[in-house]
Write a structure and sequence with these properties.
The chain is an alpha+beta fold and 689 residues long. It has five domains: 2-175 and 249-280, Rossmann fold (3-Layer(aba) Sandwich), CATH 3.40.50; 290-385, Beta Barrel (Elongation Factor Tu (Ef-tu), domain 3), CATH 2.40.30.10; 403-471, Alpha-Beta Plaits; 479-592, 2-Layer Sandwich (Ribosomal Protein S5, domain 2); 597-688, Alpha-Beta Plaits (2-Layer Sandwich), CATH 3.30.70. Helices cover 28% and strands 32% of the residues.
């Protein structure tokens, strides 16, 4: 079993959207003999991008899983999304990997999601390789892309290969360790030959630099190198492995995934330069009972422990929990403990996921990535373990949401169905947040971007048959008054045969401090108004406060003093006083200089220094007020207060301003008065609607 774990690799394919990660995965599976044809994203026949939304958009929306075997190694692939809308899934699934292959296209080089994926691999202290893809495309520039990588990232990149030609003349790659040229035909089949004469000097120079980098990563090799002794091919491979695993450097390879060029050499390098679960070592967690730090070794004889890093909602199979086993062995029809939920769970079949297919397996051990259906309590981020030897692993929290839409059913009466179906999608995607605004009565769905929310709506229709409309949320404005008014009188008198209605109320209305809400003072003297009508008066005011006189928003922060009135011994009633109170309150509001309040948000924007001027200028243009700035490494953090109405669509605007290299969070802080010209616009819009 230990030999099996030693020969296991768990790799995540990461990088910016469009770099060709899924094409690399398809080529790995084809070269490994798992598939009989090379699937293509553009043709919609990819094994890894199989969800209808992915096929239609030609982009990975959710991480996909598969396996292949290559030269006595088993490799689990996690093909992660590269779009910012779905990057939270990438973050979560990277917790199941031991190493990363960073795919960068040779045309446009390093992009923002590449940077974020690299930072995440740093956070996980993860060894990685770089595969410069699309060497056959127009404008492909291997050395220019390498220079970008060297300037942007640490650990330093090192050449392991150089290309033979580029663009339409791309023929293959030269392995600097073996000094052999690998040529590829149109069918992707490779043949080995000698280095072309025109590249021999460059190969000699680059190989010398590689040998020096490898020697520096190993003391024994460095001593031999400094003594002037040549390093054998075997020593170079060992040193390359040691340097990559120690994250002293990052090996860089190249090829074309769609033409299956250079992929076989990438597979060799994955075996050599990325770690097995044994080399990743013990995983640290906490004992949920004592809070003490504890760890588990990747040993099949250890107590079982695993982390659930992804959940898939299937309308037929139910909830599918995908987890990475860190220690111990799991068999079907067994029980384990959920340390995060403090409950026992029982699993039925153990499933191995291969693209859209799921196959039963009889046993899983350290390093294996498996799935179990229909666990009752378990969700993404939970730790599963042996009940007798508990541990809880830390899991990354979902990224904060950036954009919200109001959601309503296309068919009346589908609201309950929406909420039931959405709850299942929320299990699958913890980044989605569901809320109901008590004031606007809207169902709000929040996510990472417009495409994220639209994809959720598409899944809702496909998986659960529920169609929804997505609208910009209404701002929960409020109304209040700027000055007090005294002696507001209203008489309600109605006579239409039989018993009539009569009530008269006298109010003083004054503004309160922000957040005080509503105060009612009964200050009656004498018996003009029987006291049993006072609750009806207060109720009439409270109901009238739900809709102000400017644009129909709730009224807040007012005090009403009920000091006098008149009644009729026959025609007065609770209803008459309730109506009189409501009309008197509205009349008083109109006289008390009504105004509107809007929610003000605390906004935290994190950007590179070169974008600060644009971002601050934009915030000022949105009626924002910068309240602080600080540096964190290469980035600047801007703190501002800004009206909610101005940042409903801030996410795409910030992306546009910063090339996707800015991020932000926001939270409600307080209400503030709306400027007069904005009030006019809001009132006009409300009247129009």
């Amino acid at each position: 079993m230990e030999e099996s774990v030693k020969g296991l690799r768990n790799i995540a394919l990461v990088g910016h959207g469009g770099a060709g990660k899924t094409s690399v995965a398809e080529a790995l599976l084809f070269t490994g003999g798992v598939t009989t044809r090379l699937g293509r994203v553009d043709d919609g026949n990819s094994v890894m991008d199989f969800e209808p939304e992915e096929v239609r958009r030609k982009v990975s929306i959710s991480s996909a899983f598969h396996q292949y075997s290559w030269k006595s190694h088993r490799v689990n692939i996690i093909d992660t999304p590269g779009d910012a809308n779905f990057f939270s899934d990438t973050r979560s699934c990277l917790q199941g990997a031991d190493g990363a292959v960073v795919v960068i296209e040779a045309i446009d080089g390093v992009k923002v999601q590449t940077e974020q994926a690299w930072d995440l691999a740093d956070q996980f202290e993860m060894a990685r390789l770089v595969f410069i893809n699309k060497m056959d495309r127009e404008r492909a520039d291997f050395f220019g892309t390498f220079k970008e990588i060297a300037e942007a990232f640490k650990p330093k990149p090192v050449f392991v290969q150089i290309p033979i030609g580029a663009e339409e003349n791309f023929q293959g790659v030269i392995d600097l360790v073996t000094q052999k040229a690998h040529f590829y035909g149109k069918d992707g089949k490779s043949s080995t030959g000698e280095v072309p004469p025109e590249l021999q000097d460059q190969v000699a120079s680059e190989r010398e630099a590689l040998v020096e980098n490898i020697a520096e990563a190993d003391d024994a090799l460095l001593e031999k190198y400094l003594d002037g002794q040549p390093l054998t091919e075997e020593e170079l491979v060992q040193g390359l492995r040691a340097g990559a695993l120690a994250r002293t450097f990052v090996p860089v390879l190249c090829g074309s995934a769609t033409k299956n060029m250079g992929v076989d050499l990438l597979m060799d390098c994955i075996n050599v330069c990325l770690p097995s679960p044994l080399e990743r070592g013990a995983r640290t967690g906490t004992d949920p009972d004592t809070g003490e730090t504890t760890e588990r070794r990747p040993d099949p004889e250890e107590a079982f422990s695993a982390l659930v890093f992804k959940t898939v909602a299937d309308p037929y199979a139910g909830r599918l929990s995908i987890f990475r086993i860190f220690s111990g062995t799991l068999v079907p029809d067994s029980s384990f403990y959920n340390a995060s939920r403090q409950t026992k769970e029982r699993c039925g079949q153990l499933l191995q996921i291969a693209g859209r297919e799921q196959t039963a397996t009889t046993k899983a051990g350290p390093g294996d990535i498996v799935a179990v259906a229909k666990l009752k309590e378990t969700t993404t981020g939970d730790t599963l373990c042996d009940d007798a030897k508990k541990i809880r692993y830390h899991s990354l929290d979902p990224l904060p949401t950036l954009i919200a839409y109001a959601m309503e059913p296309k068919s009346k009466g589908d609201e309950d169905k929406i909420l039931t179906s959405l709850s299942k999608l929320l299990e699958e995607d913890p980044t989605l947040k569901l809320d109901r605004d008590a004031q606007t009565k809207q169902i709000l769905i929040s996510g990472m971007g417009q495409i994220h929310i639209e994809t959720m709506a598409e899944k809702l229709k496909r998986k659960f048959g529920v169609e929804v409309n997505l609208n910009i949320p209404r701002i929960p404005y409020k109304e209040t008054i700027r000055q007090g008014v005294k002696g507001v009188v209203y008489r309600h008198k109605k006579q239409s045969g039989g018993r009539g209605q009569f009530a008269e109320v006298h109010f003083d209305i004054t503004p309160l401090e922000e957040g005080k809400g509503f105060e009612f003072e009964q200050a009656l003297a004498g018996m003009n108004v029987p006291r049993n009508f006072v609750p009806a008066v207060e109720k009439g005011i409270v109901e009238a406060m739900s809709s102000g006189v400017l644009a129909g928003y709730p009224v807040v922060d007012v005090k009403v003093r009920f000091y006098d009135g008149k009644s009729h011994e026959v025609d007065s009633s609770e209803m008459a006083f309730k109506i009189a109170a409501s009309m008197c309150f509205k009349q008083g509001l109109r006289e008390a200089k009504p105004t509107m309040l809007e929610p003000i948000m605390n906004l935290t924007v994190t950007v590179r220094e070169e974008y600060m001027g644009d971002v601050i200028g934009d915030l000022n243009g949105r009626r924002g007020k910068v309240v602080g700035m600080e540096s964190t490494g290469k980035k600047q953090v801007i703190q501002a207060q800004i009206p909610m109405a101005e940042i409903l669509r801030y996410a795409p605007d910030l992306t546009s301003m910063t090339g996707g290299r800015g991020s932000f969070t926001s939270e409600f802080d307080h209400y503030a008065e709306v400027p007069a010209h904005i009030i006019e616009k809001v009132v006009a819009q409300e009247k129009k609607e």
